[in-house]
Amino acid sequence: MTRALGIALVLALAGTAHAQVANYRVEGDGIPQALTNTPGNAARGRALIAKREAANCLQCHAIKDLPAGGDRGPALDGVGARLTPAQLRLSVVDYARVMPKVEMPSFHRPDARPATGKEDAGKPILTAQEIEDVVAYLATLRYR
Fold first, then answer.
1. How far apart are CA 93 and CA 105, in angstroms?
2. CA angle 134, 80, 62 (to 5 degrees)
3. pLDDT of 127-144, one tens digit each?
4. Among 7, 112, 137, 144, who pairs with 45 as Cys (CB 3.0-4.6 Å)?
5. Which range of residues forms the domain containing residue 76?
């Protein structure tokens, strides 16, 4: 590999890591603008949460329609009636801005994962589209 090609490859990979964090602006108590041009899909958001991997909301929160949620955080039933999509988006993107002393991951910050030398270190936990999908699902959670 030539030196120029190697430098180009390093720069391309570095740009890719940072490109995964969407630009957003906090206005008041939320992020009113979607992080993507593709609307969130509630079914995909529900599946992400139910899968219990990256969007591991059920570790701390209960949701009636999903099994075995935690009790460390408040139940999320009715959250779509209490919070606007903008407020939900900020809560998922960067909860530290909502309540700094509460221990909850900020799922779309570049420093969300510790720099451990792993391939995904320094990248957000959820992509911009995954954020939109989770927000779409949470917005459907209304009291019944």
1. 9
2. 70
3. 999 999 999 999 999 976
4. 137
5. 22-140
